[in-house]
Amino acid sequence: MNKPKVSNAIIRRLPRYRRYLGYLQTKGIKKVSSNELSELIGYTASQIRQDFNTFGEFGQQGYGYSVDYLYKEINKILGLDREYKTVVVGCGHLGQAITNYTYYYKIGFNIMGLFDVNQDIIGKVINDVEIMDSSELKDFVTREGVDIGIICVNRENAQAVADTLVEGGVKGIWNFAPIDIDIPKDVALESVHLSDSLHALSFMIKSLNEKEQ
Amino acid sequence: MNKPKVSNAIIRRLPRYRRYLGYLQTKGIKKVSSNELSELIGYTASQIRQDFNTFGEFGQQGYGYSVDYLYKEINKILGLDREYKTVVVGCGHLGQAITNYTYYYKIGFNIMGLFDVNQDIIGKVINDVEIMDSSELKDFVTREGVDIGIICVNRENAQAVADTLVEGGVKGIWNFAPIDIDIPKDVALESVHLSDSLHALSFMIKSLNEKEQ
DNA sequence: TAGATTGTTAATCGATTAACAATC
DNA sequence: TAGATTGTTAATCGATTAACAATC
Question: To the nearest whole angstrom, how far is the Cα of A6 from the nearest Cα of chain B?
Answer without folding.
Answer: 9
